[in-house]
Amino acid sequence: MKPDKSKNELEAAVRSLIQTAMKDRGNDGLRELEDLFTVLLKEVRNREASYYTSGDLDDGPVHRERYRDIVGESTAILRIFRLLDRVADSVVPVLIQGESGTGKELIATAIHRNSSRRDQAFVAENCAAIPETLLESELFGYKRGAFTGADKNKVGLFKVADGSSLFLDEIGDMSLTMQKKLLRVLQDGEIRPVGSNEVFHVDVRIISASNKNLKEMVKRSDFREDLYYRLNTITVTIPPLRDRDEDIPLLVDFFVKRVADEMKVDVVPIDATAMKALQRYKWPGNIRELENEIRRCLALLGDETIIELASLSENIQACA
């Protein structure tokens, strides 16, 4: 396929601009260009996001069957489903924001399963769970002999996810050094394993998530602005459980059935007073905390045939 003429002309214009800036202003000119390109990238991302989110997300059909693993029928959740319907099958990066325990990985998995890459393995990594010294090797791989203990070549997750989706959870915990290396991969589409001179091209769709406010981190210079605009073409914000209490009865029913099946015990109902307390509780741990509460209730139920207010933890009972 022949290179696009307009693309070649654009590249030539950019090179000319850089050369002129270097000749006339040196490093100052390069810094000014970097700032200009950051603004330009931001505008491109905003327009791209506007393209995918144009239209009313509060109304219209929802393809509920695509999101069977996500429990909820609240307005906020249906709005997320409509957004996912529009962006899942594209290749744009998606940033998922939400408190811990709100189900960010479920959303990421749903995006992949409803994309054209669904037949490829979904690859996920928690950036907060791996020390910085190991994260580079985990993402990009390494060559045998690159460091002590590297007794064989290792394929990094970017290579594993080539042609698929890579979910980077808790990306807000990534160091500035690693952010810079990740940005280079997103810009060039190329990775170089640690200790190797060989470069590999990869085609990876990035889905990232954080329980931190990345925009505020950018303002504090704790997160690179250029990387932020690379990652958040589309932002999916998951509301905390306290803001969608109408979904709690559905979630309780789901967890009671699942946990009862795991424990090989009978499914039991929950009385109205107990349910009201569950809906009034603020759930700082969100859905994960609710699941643990149901698990605790069933484990301690004994011969009782219903979950009552007294079956719940004391701090939840106090909300009745």
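(the above was protein one; protein two follows)
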Amino acid sequence: MISIYQFFGFVLAFTVSLLSTPFVIKFAKKFGFVDHPNHRKVHKNPKPLIGGLSIVLGATAGILYLKPFYNYLVPVMAGGAIILILGMIDDKYDLKPKWKILGQLIAASIVVFSGVKINFFIIPFTGERIELGIFSYIIAIIWIIAITNAINLIDGLDGLSAGISAIALSSILVLSIINEQMFVISITVILIGSILGFLPYNFYPSKIFLGDTGALFLGYCIAVISILGLYKSVTIFSLGLPIIALAVPIFDTIFAIIRRFLNKQKISAADRAHLHHKLLDMGFSHRATVLIIYGIGASFGVSAILFTRATLWLSIIFMIALLILFQLLAEIIGLIGNHKPLLNTINKILHFRAPLKDKNN
């Protein structure tokens, strides 16, 4: 359970984030950290960026109060500092993707080579332990970079990225409470408090954007925390827990890569075909779109928690069902353009069976 000290840490992080945001807004405007509208963006007027700085201030206050002990806290914070600086530079000067990836690679490498990685997993049924060796480093680095960018890619509407991050962290919090991961509980509680303190200024109509400063930082934190907190019992299927909890940003990113590949575009090319764009195109309002995606994120977060209580076979069925569900959602909304393999297959099956039914009658 959450201790009284962790609760006070939450309150402190919330308060510092809430009270510091107006000052961050003034700072952003004064020094030119401003996002200007274009054909891809939803907002019509320039908005201050680096809202993530408020979250960092809140989280820092919470950490100084709780003083959570962890062997790898220094390298984790060093990586976070690099991500924060990278985000601020990008918000100011709009870095090329290769430089952003390089910065993320450096940050991820500092954390992973300090010891934050998955060394092995266990094969279900047989109980055989598979040592990952050098792949433990590769998998962890890829995971950190992927989640960092996934959170950043969904940051397209007021309050969307911050809210989804809070929902995902809430799922991780419950899972870490179940596994009695005290350090993860402390850090997660602090981050949730910081995000909630920032959201009143970021939710539609927003006064400030999260910016790459915040989106990259939250993505990095979630990626590292998920490695620390979700793998007390490392089986193949427990590897799916963070994927389920972070289903919205992960699958939106995967479908963006597939979509751009099929359209013969660069993977790093920006487009207006993400989940939030498609919901807006369907006629949902800005606020309704964000709330719908919150609902989807919360549903998958609850699913991740239920997943831990299921039997092995039920977990397999559950995972397959979730993959099919998200594929159907993607095809119906149009996240991969006009490519609809699953819907076309279902349509062929239905048309194939219809004549047989008529013939027998």
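Reviewer note on protein two: Residues 4-30 form the longest helix (27 residues).
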